[in-house]
Design a protein that fits this description.
CATH superfamily of one domain in chain A: Winged helix-like DNA-binding domain superfamily/Winged helix DNA-binding domain
Helix content of chain A: 40-55%
Oligomer: homodimer
CATH class of one domain in chain A: Mainly Alpha
CATH architecture of one domain in chain A: Orthogonal Bundle
Order of helices and strands of chain A: HHHEEHHH
Structural class of chain A: mainly alpha
CATH topology of one domain in chain A: Arc Repressor Mutant, subunit A
Number of strands of chain A: 2
Radius of gyration of chain A: 18 Å
Largest sheet of chain A: 2 strands, antiparallel
Chain lengths: ~150, ~150
DNA sequence: TACAAAGTATATAGATTTAGTAGACTTTTA
DNA sequence: TAAAAGTCTACTAAATCTATATACTTTGTA
């Protein structure tokens, strides 16, 4: 499962993606729109800013905005920045690799092999899906929901 | 990430799959072969037994064995029995569904849509892969490792 | 029949992680 | 100069996970 941190981060980027090019949006506005605890969101946005995904502006009229086009920010990046590993086993994780301490031979582990396949499938989707895609899908879903 | 419980469960089933049809194997043997804390493994095997995957035999010469052919036990079942959800978001989980409390409209949530796709891809692999497949893969990996 | 082997059951402890809160500080704009 | 808004660090509460402890039951065999 993704952590709340990761979920909130994606949600925030989607909101900011929708106003890309316009004036920055305040934390409190994002927080209230998306029902995210404000203080928690502060930390998350700060991380995303330090990672170079967002810019911030202090003072009255300040807020956060995307540095890059939402079409160039991929969901997989957000997972990694917020500490959510893509892999289901530490031994098949590219960015959070750790030896399974119970495993005697990683190279010949059948379990590992299966979860490597799972990771690759997941990675393919998440590294091909941008924030812009998420927004686009939302639009399609809304269309299909209207009668 | 999968919990240790889930990982240990899969490992144990693989070991038992290899001796399917033979006499049952003792917890302590499985534990030492797979480097799993014995008392922890006891609980896990008990769960798998109560779920109908394993039979047990008490007393001298006792132990655990698979009830069904390893080709009929799928990895996805093990995840579910041991509490490891397949989905990365609670709102796309079939067996551990929960509303995302920050989400205002599930039906039109683009994030959900993406992770639904991820879940489907993962589910496909894990529900098509049996314990027998895991054992088979291990064999192939060993072949490829030998020079 | 007694004893040892092996599973059963429940409780609990310790560690780790996650989620969220608090508070004081800095920068910017009107 | 006051209010708006982000920055930074620390802390706490709760949940979960991992593992251990203890006492008990069943079964095979010497």
């Amino acid at each position: 499962m993704l952590s709340k941190k990761t979920r909130y981060a994606i949600k925030a980027l989607v909101v900011l993606g929708k106003i890309f090019g316009e004036a920055p949006m305040q934390i409190s506005k994002i927080a209230s729109e998306e029902h995210i605890p404000k203080k928690f969101l502060e930390q998350i946005l700060l991380d995303l800013r330090n990672a170079g995904l967002l810019y911030s502006k202090k003072g009255a009229g300040g807020g956060y905005g995307l540095v890059k086009d939402p079409a160039e920010i991929f969901v997989v990046q957000v997972l990694r920045l917020t500490g959510g590993p893509v892999a289901l086993l530490p031994c098949v994780s590219l960015n959070f690799y750790q030896k399974c301490d119970e495993c005697s031979n990683e190279a010949t582990c059948g379990v590992r092999d299966v979860f490597l396949e799972v990771r690759n499938a997941t990675l393919k989707i998440l590294s091909e899906t941008s924030i812009a895609d998420v927004i686009r899908r939302e639009g399609l879903l809304i269309q299909n929901t209207e009668v």
